[in-house]
Amino acid sequence: FRRIVMASRPRGPVTAENFRMETVDMRPLDDGEVLVRNHYLSLDPYMRGRMSSAKSYAASQQLDHTMIGGTVGQVVASRNDYFKVGEFVGGMLGWAEMGVSDGVLLRKLDTTRIPLSAYLGVVGMPGMAAWYGFNQILEAAAGDTVVVSAASGAVGSVVGQLARLRGCRVVGIAGGAEKCEYVVKQLGFDACVDHKAGNLEADLAAATPEGVDAIFENVGGACLDAALARTNAYARVALCGLIAGFDGKELPIKHSRLLLLNRLTLRGFIVTEHMEFWQQGLQELAALVASHQIKYRETVAEGLAAAPQAFMGLLQGHNFGKQLVKLIS
Ligand code: NDP
């Protein structure tokens, strides 16, 4: 089967030369092992952090090893009593057509109510990041104004819809008119500001006439500055991601003075450190997706060879909703 390894570490933006496709032989399964055919790979911004050797919250990706990543697929052979051939499972089998698991990080998935691919997005790690940051950090009440950056994306789209369900006024920030229109018309945000239109601070000010009580930050830089400029006293910031700085750019906070003046609380978090919430969170998200109260969108690249290009696109905002790679048709 084929897999993609990291061939070199990026200096600045990721390039195609940082990856290499290889064909590997299948080895016989040991006792307790499961062979999975991957149907979808998840592409996520954190992978950029792992490709660098700099300190990051995720351990760094090793050279010449399969690119790490979440996967969903089907069991095709099993020497593990718990997993049967034909069952759908989620795991961390990386950028590869097949993978062998010892079963420890493998999870059975129920595809009767939720499509398989959604377990990599809205009912998976990104959905949980949204759920955790919104419910455990933002303390948003009905009537509060909540700002969400990367609003059309895997995490941001869920945050905004959870906030709408709670009765908040929700204002997104996204790149381009098409994404903004989707965020308002399809996802039900109250407003969405285009960070590419050149007027971010003024446009966000116009969209938040009563100031901002809570910020769910996915981007950093100009997006965070514009939201901080609008904060009310005691506003909360859930710092989920700083994708604008992923290529090594520092992202100084222009309005740091407001952290004090407005007595803000800012908390960064890593969702995989809070596994005790996952069962509850994923159950709630699954129920909301099954009842169509939470909508989601996916951008699907076809075939393993398309993964590097799709990943580079994700870091540049070319994805529209959760970025996946589909491996079987
Ligand atoms: P998305 O689906 O939101 O895709 C990334 C989006 O980021 C792009 O589509 C683009 O949207 C936006 N973006 C990229 N570069 C820039 C830039 N320079 N300025 C403004 N926007 C930019 O990805 P996810 O939902 O998977 O992740 C969102 C964030 O959440 C990331 O920062 C990620 O690292 C973080 N995260 C953190 C977790 C945690 O545990 N702390 C867990 C999961 C994700 P647009 O076109 O609208 O600008």
UniProtKB/TrEMBL annotation:
Domain named Enoyl reductase (ER): residues: 15-325
UniProt-listed InterPro entries: ADH-like_C, ADH_N_2, ER, GroES-like_sf, MDR_fam, NAD(P)-bd_dom_sf
CDD domains: PGDH
Entry-linked SUPFAM superfamilies: GroES-like (SSF50129), NAD(P)-binding Rossmann-fold domains (SSF51735)
Molecular function GO labels: oxidoreductase activity, acting on the CH-CH group of donors, NAD or NADP as acceptor
Protein name, per record: Zinc-binding dehydrogenase
Organism of derivation: Duganella vulcania
Origin: domain of life: Bacteria
Keywords: Oxidoreductase
Pfam family, one: ADH_zinc_N
